[in-house]
Write a structure and sequence with these properties.
Oligomer: single chain
Number of strands: 6
Radius of gyration: 19 Å
Distance between the termini: 51 Å
Strand order of the largest sheet: 1-6-5-4-3-2
Length: 141
């Protein structure tokens, strides 16, 4: 039976249009794709925050708010870039008064943890030489 985690979004206190650097956006999307799951939980222990990446947004939940979303990165528009190295526009929505202050620190901390988690996923999925097998098909006559 699958486990579900519920998060609650309060009233929007404010929103801003922002951009996310291409390396950060691409790393985040690759982590989600490599996981093979509908979402990825990224603990940011240095801030006591849990980030959750899914196909539509990234939410940030502070440990002292339990399941209440503090802020979210939403409405990514990668299709507007002319190159994969261009930044990706998105909307920052915040639901807690302290969110803007925490957002400044979270962006850098988040991507350090995304890289760490991606490295762990790659190590888990890397097959060992003992599990590899080359199959040779007989030639047709």
């Amino acid at each position: 039976m699958p486990q579900y985690e519920s998060f609650y979004r309060g009233d929007v206190l404010g929103f801003e249009t922002r951009t996310l650097s291409a390396p950060h956006y691409n790393a985040m999307r690759l982590l989600l794709d490599f996981s093979g799951k509908p979402c990825v939980f990224v603990p940011i222990r240095t801030m006591q925050v849990m980030a959750v990446i899914d196909h539509e947004e990234v939410i940030f939940v502070a440990s002292h708010h339990k399941a209440e979303i503090e802020f979210a990165w939403r409405y990514f528009h990668p299709q507007t870039r002319e190159s994969l190295s261009d930044p990706v526009p998105y909307m920052l929505e915040y639901y807690k008064p302290e969110a803007l202050e925490n957002m400044q620190r979270a962006q850098g901390e988040f991507f350090q943890h995304v890289k760490l988690l991606a490295g762990r996923l790659r190590q888990q999925e890397r097959p060992t030489t003992a599990t590899r097998k080359v199959v040779t098909f007989p030639q047709r006559s």
